[in-house]
From TrEMBL:
It comes from the Eukaryota. Keywords: Mitochondrion, Ribonucleoprotein, Ribosomal protein. Residues 6-111 form the Ribosomal protein/NADH dehydrogenase domain. It is found in: Mitochondrion. It comes from Westerdykella ornata. This is Ribosomal protein/NADH dehydrogenase domain-containing protein. GO terms for cellular component: mitochondrion; ribonucleoprotein complex; ribosome.
Length: 165
């Protein structure tokens, strides 16, 4: 994968894909080799190169992009795994990160993994925790506002004028 270091010139989707989606892909596919080439030219290319293993091999591995190697030259080419030419080249300039993921999935015939029972349980616990924390946040805020109002009333009852000293 190659793109600009900054989001200028239509590289926002590529950058967000690199930061948010590639770590998850790499976590679930540790054997996939991923290389990132970042350049500093906003007019430079934003491409996703997908390399697949030879048809003789039974498993198809995609070496799209993830390692943290960075390059500052605009003319550098991505690291080449087994073949000289990528199996697929996707232009990702001005493309949203979810569309980049969709193109990667469609071109590699990837399968979406369903969460395990443990992961479903953890997600439910996290959702429950978030709901409880939001309710607690509201209660604490109301208590804080009530205390602040009581302090203001006491200050007025004592005859203090104005704000804080």
């Amino acid at each position: 994968m190659e793109f600009n270091k900054h989001i200028n010139g239509g590289h926002r989707g590529a950058r967000k894909f690199w930061r948010e989606m590639l770590p998850r892909i790499k976590y679930r596919n540790p054997a996939v080799s991923i290389t990132i080439n970042r350049h500093s030219d906003p007019a430079g290319p934003a491409n996703l190169y997908i390399y697949t293993s030879s048809p003789k091999s039974k498993s198809t591995t995609t070496a799209s992009s993830t390692s943290t190697s960075t390059s500052t030259s605009a003319s550098s080419s991505p690291s080449v795994p087994d073949t000289a030419e990528p199996t697929h080249t996707v232009d990702i300039r001005m493309v949203h990160e979810s569309e980049i993921l969709a193109q990667l999935v469609s071109r590699t015939n990837a399968e979406e993994l369903q969460p395990t029972e443990e992961e479903v349980r953890e997600l439910a616990e996290m959702a429950e925790f978030k709901a409880r924390s939001e309710a607690d946040r509201v209660i604490v805020r109301e208590r804080f506002l009530k205390e602040r109002k009581e302090q203001e009333l006491l200050r007025l009852a004592r005859g203090e004028v104005g704000g804080t000293q």
